[in-house]
Amino acid sequence: MAKHETPMLDQLESGPWPSFVSDIKQEIAHRKANPNNVELQIPADVPEDILGVLELSFKHGRTHWKHGGIVGVFGYGGGVIGRYCDQPEMFPGVAHFHTIRVNQPAGKFYTTEYLRKLCDLWEFRGSGITNMHGSTGDIIFLGTHTKQLEEIFFELTHNLNQDLGGSGSNLRTPADCIGMARCEYACYDTQDLCHTLTNEYQDELHRPAFPYKFKFKFDGCPNCCVASIARSDMSFVGTWRDDIKIDQEAVKAYIGGEIAPNGGAHAGRDWGPFDIQKEVIGLCPTGCMWMEGDKLMIDNRECTRCMHCINVMPRALRIGDDRGLSILVGAKAPILDGAQMGSLLVPFIKAEAPYDEIKEVIEKVWDWWMEEGKNRERLGELIKRQGFQRLLEMTEIEPMPQHVQEPRSNPYIFWKEEEVEGGWERDVNEFRKYHLR
Amino acid sequence: MDENEARKTIVATLEGKKGKSKFYLKDFYAMFPEEKPRTIKNIVNKMVGEGTLEYWSSGSTTLIGLKGVGKQAGAEHED
Amino acid sequence: MAFVSSGYDPNEPMKNRITDIGPRHYEEFYPPVIAKNKGKWLYHEILEPGVLVHVAESGDEVYTVRVGGARLMSVTHIREICEIAEKHCGGYVRWTTRNNIEFMVDSKDKVAPLKKDLESRKFDGGSFKFPVGGTGAGITNIVHTQGWIHCHTPATDASGPVKACMDELFADFQSMRMPAQLRVSLACCLNMCGAVHCSDIAILGYHRKPPMLDHEYLDKMCEIPLAIAACPTAAIKPAKIEINGQKLNTVAINNSRCMFCGNCYTMCPALPLSDKEGDGIVIMAGGKVSNRISAPKFSKVVVAFLPNEPPRWPSTTDTIKKIVEAYASGAKKYERLGEWAERIGWERFFERCDLPFTHHLIDDFRDPAYFTWRQTTQFKF
Ligand code: HEM
Ligand code: SF4
Ligand code: SF4
Ligand code: SF4
Ligand code: SF4
Questions:
Q1: Which residue of A114, A137, A237, C367 lies most exposed, with the fewest beta carbons within 10 A?
Q2: Could you tell me if the ipTM is greater than 0.90?
Q3: Taking Cα atoms as reference points, which of C367, A283, A287, C357 lies closest to residue C379?
Q4: Does A382 fall in a domain?
Q5: Are the Cβ atoms of C23 and A163 closer than 8 angstroms?
């Protein structure tokens, strides 16, 4: 007999997509049977209460969770999110039920040995329910009691060599794309940079340092698989400065229909025979490609590295060899002043360990934001408030046309006194010699 | 700056605020206009480690106050 | 259920404390074929929906079978993933940014047994545990946030609508008939933890009623200055009220300034704002994050409000299907949803998708609004 009736949730068990309701039910059964005699540290029926609360929300059309903010592990400002149920008597198992963010490994590769240890710990001391993963990237342990928080942290650090992720006004857990581990488009080692910076900035990650949250994300190329350009205060996007490498034999094979375009991504529909003119050359946003006989030509100086041609013909075209990354800053979700996309700050920087040049840019940006940022003002909002020029000044980067989509269309330039010949102090009497009152 | 003096200033300032127990990092910077934010941030975080101050996190923002002071602890039944 | 100590001593929290060690090193977790060929991959190919091969300079190949997952996952389910990875993949597995799970093997003959095994596993309720797909010009997994399962400000659920939508879009998870990839995301309130603001189709929970005021408890439960400071639009002011002859400190909310963000409720449980009729879903469309061909774009609001309809949210899934079908039949090869809408014009977009246009869809929020109005005589009838 189920502890709580869940007629609405039960309707989410049918249909082909994996049902989280069925999954939680299998966890309920597992905890009840407890085949390994685990000394469960929070009640066995907690997952039943989770389903029960959710069913009640389905019925009421309202959440039944309240916020809490004090709980955490000693000395850390992030990594735990306090959570309380507003029907504690109906659902005692989840009356206090806090989230733990566990810092995922770069690239999200795992050995099963490690995963099993995580599962054992979370079955023993928590609800057994997780998010793989939260949208920032962390492994999320979804719900445990206050008393278990320190115990879990102790076990994570002592037995799993594993730390928590970020929350609050901290550096948030950085995240990266799979990059060089399995992607031929990667222009730098996203995992290495992500891991290196995560460790370099552990203090900022665990203890509040900033006016608000701060996110790093790492994309190996302009395809932006982790959406760094849209959702990180500082976005690192791989790029290159030299020529796209062309294998003319493979180009011929694409034209001849021997290789499917776009790695076979369009195989589900008959789009007709591959037409290089229409599908590649004609769609190049800069018009910098053409055919000379059966040879494909690229005017690389004009290419903006949009990745389209490379995506369509990965076996014929390869990223260049002079690789590095672009840094864009200030992306954020809409709240409060509307969404902001990242703005290009550093067009090209080499990405080689120990990444000192990159750290220098980061720290200059932070110094400015820590000094000038208002409470709960994201970096992108500060840049908007004080101007892109100010950002350049603080990071000691020279302005260049790459920094803008287009130059300003108003002439209202706030000239500084030192920029104007002779300064602003003038002698009005001298002026009056030539201009009567 | 003398760190112990700074500690005393922080505690005294917070105790002097009526009706409000949680503060942003910026409020601490304002107590020491001459100092670098990073220096103050490090002292504040140290004081949390020593048990004088505590964090309160909304999940997205962190506030800081004297340990155990304020109404949140009661409302969250964590007192 | 006896308490078992980990070794942590509450009286001496700093004793033996380990901190600031960061995540595990990624190299511990690379399958051998990845460790060996990292940075030396030549090209990849999608062999069939959900199955990829990557070929390295060394001639080595890695075959990946990608399966969808509910990101809300039990340890029992993760252990089953481990069991499969141990049986077929040498004990390695990975997750993608979009909550898919990738099983990798180093030779082609290992693919079919792996795939068969994955496809054969079903939950008791009948759904697939590991549906293969999510590649190429199709619709991959929906990234989403917490919703009613664990957050305090959601205006809709997350896991429920995602399950309902993915059931409807399932055929396109397992095929590649779209003009380009189509990314769907869900965030359950306007804080948009899930950063849905750059998705081809975004499902966004939205409140439409300002918070209620629990005057009697407000001053007892909350610090009024904190609730006031939390409001991004400065809609909250301190106030005094008399209840049963008792003078109480409380707040007043200027309802017309409220943008329904729930920040005040975060600081003060005496200001709840969730409401069955008030809360529901906004549909946004046409965003992208890739720099391919055109620049990254924000999603635009195309449906101002749909009601919450648990358990299966039919109005939401119907609307999404309409948009998907209009896009699939109208867009050119490689064209993302937003690029298609811009090419045909947004006036045509509403016509093709059979969506009504209402005044809510005209931007009036702060400065950038002006740039979204039509400032040309070029438009379509
Ligand atoms: C006042 C504003 C905000 C508050 C009070 C808030 C609060 C929260 C809380 C309590 C959670 C945890 C839910 C849980 O796991 O139980 C959360 C998750 C999260 N928040 Fe926020 N948030 C705010 C704004 C934002 C914004 C603007 C963003 C993005 C820019 C964001 C990004 C995230 C992310 C990525 C998660 C993880 C979501 C998931 O994967 O489930 N938050 N937020
Ligand atoms: S962002 Fe680029 S390098 Fe990274 S996984 Fe995507 S395509 Fe590959
Ligand atoms: S990467 Fe883009 S801009 Fe460069 S040649 Fe290819 S299609 Fe043109
Ligand atoms: S989007 Fe809003 S409701 Fe959903 S998890 Fe984030 S803060 Fe909570
Ligand atoms: S919901 Fe948001 S905008 Fe409305 S009163 Fe509360 S904090 Fe202010």
A1: C367
A2: yes
A3: C357
A4: yes
A5: yes
